[in-house]
């Protein structure tokens, strides 16, 4: 198995499970892409070989434990930050789990990602430090780099529970070219019953797309696009209203090209039903993205090193202006 | 990957891929007589060059696979077998969610199971291997697998890794069952021992655990036994488990029912004969 197509095909079309020749490879791929829980739910109830079924059953059970722990961690952050009186918005996996969305089903959840208004950032930092979180990195360059240019605090880890929290005040680095309107995004949040919030449905997709195409080097993109597929399908049940919201949100936050690309690639990988007006025309570079996304073999190894390097360089290029990039890479290289 | 070895140990199937021939050949010899997995493997282990050029130039074996520890140090190719063993351990420790995993040795006799756990150097591997040569069924020296719904003990009879001075205790075994002597490893000199044939033939037979032991080895220690209360046993076993936290409530349920249903004893010993006597005595009382 030379690329990740077998995994993607199974997610898109569970009936393909009858034709799988090498389950070990599919499982290695799914684990490498952090999609084994999602796949286990997707194939739930299908006729599978007994060993595979047992493995997926464990993955579903594990996913439930992951969900409970993630929600508990979110609750811990809520308690620590409640005195601020500022909105605390869950992002990514924790948000999907807390909002009970399809995208959260079996999804792996690592760190807790939250978004707070920029003016509350210093207070949030103090509150978390007082509640038992500690800095992970002690390096002063990293610290300064985060504080000056990034859209989040340097990562914090809880000293007893050993869980990380990323506190964001924006969805993209301040140095990135698109400028999302964070005030509007925070204003549009949806409050949950427990006092925490999540982004609006459209903004969830905008954030996922921003993370993937305007910031990252596409590592983990197979899973991020699976999130987008699930979100789009679930929200599209509301009909045209959602389509309009997504167009507006993408435009408001200066991220129409990223959202368009995300929709086209989700459609290419998972057959996601997308708004043709927003997704736009297929671009020749879409193939290159697809090639990068699927660059993993049946042993879980990353392939296509040159393609990956290209996207790595691109991710930094997008994140900061050229001179700053040169300086940043110089500091990083000298430290190795 | 170029060289592939598939291995079934108890309920767990591994697929091991290597960029070099030697580690896979060593595995084949050492695991002779083990069944081939029937169907999908639970875990993939990859032995690959730490950096591309390190495949040829001072070959350096990185242990990777489904689950990876970012700071696991690579090993020289001469210790490729150890890398494979550590790679399998890593997959179990980080990825096993079907059983409560205890860092413990396990044995069976008269249809009942014995669990032994302790800090590194407590001698659980050595004791388990010795008892395995003296009428007990060896079920594993590294990980004990506890069923989550029924609390039964499942065999995981991998090869035993004998360290340093304990090697001398096994001079009499069939040399066919021994792996190469690996010197200068992070754990000193290591030699692997394949369990005796009965332990491999019965690797699918689980048993009911009957006694938990916490052995402690020291040259100056007087032989002694001590009762360990359920609460202390519970705490020590949570520390000995690699997946107790990840399993959540299921892990808690399995562990509480284990410690509340069977006796636990600590034993101090200064040589193997002493330990065997103590174990026999406690076993007859359990």
Shape call of chain B? globular
Q: What structural class results from the helix and strand content of chain B?
A: alpha+beta
* Domain unit count of chain B: 2
How large is the radius of gyration of chain A? 20 Å
Rg of chain B, alpha carbons = 19 Å
- Report the CATH C-level class of chain A: Alpha Beta
CATH architectural arrangement of chain A: 2-Layer Sandwich
Q: Largest interface, by Cβ-Cβ below 8 angstroms: which chains and how many residues each?
A: A-B, 23 and 23 residues
The appropriate CATH architecture of the largest domain in chain B is 3-Layer(aba) Sandwich
SS-based class of chain A: alpha/beta
What name does the CATH topology of chain A carry?
A: Beta Polymerase, domain 2
* Straight-line distance between termini of chain A: 34 Å
Oligomer kind? heterodimer
Terminal Cα span of chain B: 49 Å
* Major sheet details of chain B: 6 strands, mixed
Overall mean pLDDT of chain B stands at 94
Q: Can you describe this structure?
A:
The complex is a heterodimer of chains A (336) and B (286). Chain A is of the alpha/beta class. Chain A has a single domain (5-335), classed as Beta Polymerase, domain 2 (2-Layer Sandwich), CATH 3.30.460. Chain A contains 16 helices and 7 strands. Chain A has helices spanning 5-12, 23-32, 36-42, 50-81, 92-98, 121-130, 140-149, 182-187, 201-215, 221-235, 240-252, 256-270, 276-279, 285-293, 305-319, 322-335; strands at residues 89-90, 112-115, 133-135, 156-158, 164-168, 190-191, 197-198. In chain A, strands 3-4-5-2-1-7-6 form a 7-stranded mixed sheet. In chain A, helix 3 (36-42) crosses helix 4, helix 9 crosses helix 12 (256-270) and helix 11 (240-252) packs across helix 12 (256-270). The longest helix of chain A is centred in the N-terminal third of the chain and has 32 residues, at 50-81. The radius of gyration of chain A is 20 Å and the shape is globular. The two termini of chain A are 34 Å apart. Chain B has 286 residues and is α+β, with helices and mostly antiparallel strands. Chain B has 2 domains: 3-95, no CATH class; 99-285, Rossmann fold (3-Layer(aba) Sandwich). Chain B has 8 helices and 17 strands. Chain B has a 6-stranded mixed sheet with strand order 9-7-8-15-17-16, with helices on both faces. In chain B, strands 1-2-3-4-5 form a 5-stranded mixed sheet. In chain B, strand 13 and strand 14 form a beta hairpin. The longest helix of chain B has 16 residues, at 80-95. The relative contact order of chain B is 0.14. The chains are: A alpha/beta (336), B alpha+beta (286). At the A-B interface, helix 2 and helix 4 of A face strand 2 and strand 3 of B.
């Amino acid at each position: 198995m030379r690329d990740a197509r077998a995994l993607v095909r199974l997610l898109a079309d569970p009936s393909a499970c009858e034709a799988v020749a090498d389950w070990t490879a599919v499982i290695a791929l799914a684990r490498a892409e952090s999609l084994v829980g999602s796949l286990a739910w997707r194939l739930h109830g299908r006729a599978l070989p007994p060993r595979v079924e047992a493995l997926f059953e464990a993955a579903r059970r594990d996913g439930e434990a992951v969900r409970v722990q993630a929600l508990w961690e979110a609750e811990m952050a809520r308690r620590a930050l409640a005195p601020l009186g500022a909105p605390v918005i869950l992002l990514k996996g924790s948000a999907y789990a807390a909002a009970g969305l399809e995208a959260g089903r079996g999804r792996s959840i690592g760190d807790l990602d939250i978004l707070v208004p920029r003016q509350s950032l210093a207070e949030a930092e103090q509150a978390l430090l007082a509640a038992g979180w500690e800095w992970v990195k002690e390096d002063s360059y990293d610290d300064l780099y985060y504080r000056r240019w990034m859209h989040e605090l340097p990562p914090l880890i809880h000293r007893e529970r050993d869980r990380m929290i990323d506190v964001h005040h924006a969805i993209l680095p301040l140095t990135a070219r698109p400028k999302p309107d964070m005030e509007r995004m925070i204003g549009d949040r949806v409050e949950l019953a427990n006092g925490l919030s999540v982004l609006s449905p459209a903004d969830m997709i905008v954030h996922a797309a921003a993370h993937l195409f305007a910031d990252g080097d596409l590592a983990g993109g197979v899973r991020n696009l699976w999130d987008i597929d699930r979100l789009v399908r679930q929200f599209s049940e509301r009909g045209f209203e959602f389509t309009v919201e997504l167009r507006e949100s993408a435009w408001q936050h200066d991220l129409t090209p990223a959202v368009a690309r995300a929709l086209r690639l989700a459609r290419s990988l998972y057959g996601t039903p997308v708004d043709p007006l927003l997704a736009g025309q297929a671009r020749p570079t879409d193939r290159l993205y697809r090639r990068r996304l699927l660059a993993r073999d049946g042993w879980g190894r990353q392939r296509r090193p040159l393609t990956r390097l290209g996207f790595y360089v691109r991710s930094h290029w997008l994140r900061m202006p050229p001179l700053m990039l040169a300086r940043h890479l110089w500091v990083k290289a000298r430290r190795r | 990957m170029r060289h592939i070895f598939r291995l079934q140990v108890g309920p767990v199937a591994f697929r091991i891929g290597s960029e070099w021939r030697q580690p896979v050949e060593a595995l084949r010899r050492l695991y002779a007589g083990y069944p081939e997995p029937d169907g999908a493997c639970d875990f993939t282990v990859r032995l690959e060059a730490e950096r591309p050029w390190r495949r040829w130039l001072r070959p350096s074996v990185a242990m990777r696979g489904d689950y990876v520890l970012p700071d696991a140090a690579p090993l020289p190719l001469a210790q490729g077998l150890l890398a494979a063993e550590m790679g399998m351990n890593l997959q179990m420790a980080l990825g096993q969610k079907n059983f409560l995993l205890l860092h413990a040795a396990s044995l069976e006799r008269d249809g009942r199971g014995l669990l032994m756990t302790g800090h590194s150097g407590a001698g659980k591997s050595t004791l388990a291997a010795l008892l395995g040569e003296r009428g007990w069924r060896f079920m594993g020296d590294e990980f004990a697998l506890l069923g989550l719904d029924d609390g039964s003990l499942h065999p995981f009879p991998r090869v035993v890794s004998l360290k340093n001075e304990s090697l001398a205790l096994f001079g009499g075994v069939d040399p066919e069952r021994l792996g190469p002597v690996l010197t200068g490893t992070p754990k000193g000199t290591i030699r692997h021992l394949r369990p005796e044939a009965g332990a491999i033939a019965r690797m699918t037979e689980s048993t009911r655990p009957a006694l938990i032991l916490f052995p402690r080895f020291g040259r100056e220690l007087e032989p002694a036994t001590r009762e360990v209360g359920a609460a202390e046993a519970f705490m020590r076993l949570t520390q000995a488990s690699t997946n107790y936290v990840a399993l959540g409530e299921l892990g808690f349920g399995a562990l509480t029912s284990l410690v509340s249903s069977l006796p636990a004893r600590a034993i101090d010993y200064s040589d193997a004969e002493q330990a065997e006597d103590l174990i026999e005595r406690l076993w007859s009382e359990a």
